[in-house]
């Protein structure tokens, strides 16, 4: 016994809706992940810049002392 065309159409629509919903969930996750990662990288970058400035200061101080 084959399915009625209307029933088959509804099943296909439900499947498409399910796939669409799951794709949207993946997109939302990726967007949140990207934002979180961007913020964490910005924080790490700030810390690295601070350390670089401190190293530059220390290098300049040692050069002055050794001269």
How would you explain this protein's 3D organization?
With 67 residues, this protein is mainly α. Helices cover 93% and strands 0% of the residues.
Keywords:
67 residues, mainly alpha, 1 helix, 0% strand, protein-containing complex binding, cytoskeleton, coiled coil, Component of SCAR regulatory complex, BRICK1
- Helix proportion of residues, in percent? over 70%
Q: Which blocks of ≥5 consecutive residues have pLDDT under 50? A: none
Distance between the termini: 97 Å
Please indicate the percent range of residues in DSSP E strands (runs of 2 or more). under 5%
Largest sheet: none
Radius of gyration: 29 Å
Shape: rod-shaped
Order of helices and strands: H
Helix/strand-derived category reads mainly alpha
GO molecular function: protein-containing complex binding
Keywords: Coiled coil, Cytoplasm, Cytoskeleton
GO cellular component, one term: cytoskeleton
Family: Belongs to the BRK1 family.
């Amino acid at each position: 016994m084959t399915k009625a065309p209307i029933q088959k159409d509804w099943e296909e629509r439900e499947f498409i809706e399910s796939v669409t919903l799951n794709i949207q969930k993946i997109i939302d996750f990726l967007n949140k992940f990207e934002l979180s990662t961007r913020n964490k990288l910005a924080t790490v970058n700030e810390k690295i810049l601070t350390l670089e400035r401190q190293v530059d200061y220390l290098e300049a101080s040692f050069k002055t002392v050794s001269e």
